[in-house]
Amino acid sequence: MKNIVITGGAGFIGSHVVRLFVNKYPEYNVICLDKLTYAGNLANLKDIENKPNYKFVKMDICDFEAFYQLMQNEKVDGIIHLAAESHVDRSIKDPFTFAQTNVMGTLALLQAAKLYWESLPEKYEGKRFYHISTDEVYGALELTHPEGIEPPFTTTASSSEHHLAYGKDFFYEDTKYNPHSPYSAAKASSDHFVRAYHDTYGMPTIVTNCSNNYGPYQFPEKLIPLFINNIRHRKPLPVYGKGENVRDWLYVEDHARAIDLIFHKGKTAETYNIGGFNEWKNIDLIKVMIKTVDSILGNPEGSSLELITYVTDRAGHDLRYAIDSTKLQKELGWEPSLQFEEGIEKTVRWYLENQEWMDNVTSGDYQKYYETMYCGK
Ligand code: NAD
Ligand code: DAU
Question: What is the DSSP letter of 152?
Fold first, then answer.
């Protein structure tokens, strides 16, 4: 495969995938396609913007005609599809935008790819449509506490002690879809369309469902960058409900490495779960962030604990996510490279050292959204 489109390439995960492909595959023509919504930022790709194998195209994935044209002009062989509206809280306020981008946008890409690839003599030979999805489509798991063990109950992919999690059950590739938020319902719908294009037209598709990512360049409406920034500026930390919800965290570069591996070696029509067996209760994770930021900034230990502010819970808040990524590990040999403690320290340092990036992305429209969400304006 030579000509590859990465949609949502100016966003958080997309920018790490674009960077990896541009640096690792000089022989590829890597096209970063993005509408540059509030969540997309070309500053995320500054370090590679002048590479000869990189091109940026500003486009809305819902624009079928424009994308069909791009497929023809660039002779696109592969699509890695990350563009989406991605924030659950926004989906609760504005579900239509989520259905439009995540469902209709994905459908526009599928149909344009189908028409172009079917017009070629080789048809689908050597082509691939790789759709990036989320563990949220599976719904929520029950939460239990391992007897006699103090939190946090962290586990690692290389450890066999998976029972040290917040429950016996995990999300597997064949877990029934049961989305609860407009965001996850829209993602679930797009996953079904992708699989339908394989089953109906024979398009070579792949779907992966990943757990929560963290790391540099994440838009600071999401828990980790929002809280790091708020601790730095001594603003309240809005913890939803009791802070009991559990998320399974993976360093974003490990996700990008998994995407690279699956794009090249994954089996057509398969689904792979991606996750690091790294479950944290929100409140425990928040305490780790407070400790790390306070220590790096030289604040007295624990002085930012007073910023914790319990607020009304998120509507339909999923209790626990936990991914079983055994299939990916066994079949393709993928493993997360970072321990969580290392990853979170690296992440905190990055945000503290990149205040200019933070100031840029939090100016303007985002500031208005933040005030509506958290300041009762
Ligand atoms: P993000 O919000 O940071 O980035 C999304 C990108 O898509 C932005 O650059 C935005 O400008 C672009 N975009 C939005 N609407 C578009 C449109 N209509 N046309 C073209 N571009 C558009 O999201 P993210 O966290 O990087 O997530 C990327 C993908 O990975 C999403 O599909 C998401 O569902 C999935 N995912 C995310 C996580 C996570 O923890 N962040 C975990 C699993 C899966
Ligand atoms: O699981 C994968 C998903 O992870 C992705 O598909 C989504 O795109 C991504 O946004 C993320 O969804 P979450 O809803 O889990 O992430 P978020 O960072 O919004 O919230 C993480 C947890 O922290 C969740 O339980 C809600 C809670 N939270 C979040 C925010 C923003 C708070 O308590 N306070 C907050 O201010």
Answer: P
- Return the domain boundaries, the chain: 1-137+177-210
Find where tokens 């194998």 sit: 53
pLDDT confidence of residue 158 = 42
**Residue 86 · residue 13 · CB < 8 Å:** no
- Is ligand 2 within 6 A of the CB of residue 86? yes
Helix (H/G/I), strand (E/B), else coil: 24: helix
Question: Of 116, 166, 183, 214, which is the active-site residue?
Answer: 183
Position 149 scores a pLDDT of 59
Q: CA neighbours within 13 Å on the CB side: how many for 335?
A: 9
135 is catalytic: yes
DSSP H or E run through 228: helix 223-232
- How far apart CA 23 and CA 2 sit, in angstroms, is 14
Domain 1-137+177-210: assigned CATH number = 3.40.50.720
Q: What is the pLDDT of residue 151?
A: 54
How does residue 164 score in pLDDT terms, banded at 50, 70 and 90? low
| Ligand 1 center to 39 CA (angstroms) | 8
pLDDT at 154: 52
294 included as an active-site residue: no
Residue to mutate, 13, 37, 38, 88, ligand 2, most ligand atoms under 8 Å from C-beta: 88
Residue 285 to residues 53, 77, 354, 361, Cα–Cα distance (Å): 39, 41, 22, 24
**Of 135, 248, 253, 318, catalytic:** 135
Atom of ligand 1 nearest to the CA of 38: 11
Helices (runs of H) and strands (runs of E) counted in the chain: 13, 12
> With bands split at pLDDT 50, 70 and 90, how would you rate the model's confidence at 146?
low
What span, in angstroms and rounded, lies between the C-alpha atoms of 195 and 203?
A: 9
Q: What is the pLDDT of residues 28-68, one digit of tens each?
A: 999 999 999 999 999 999 999 999 999 999 999 999 999 99
Ligand 2 pocket, mutate which of 131, 138, 240 (most atoms under 8 A from CB)? 240
In the annotation, is 183 catalytic? yes
- Whether 346 contacts 254, CB under 8 Å: no
For the stretch 253-281, pLDDT in tens is 999 999 999 999 999 999 999 998 888 88
Dist CA 283 CA 166 (whole Å): 14
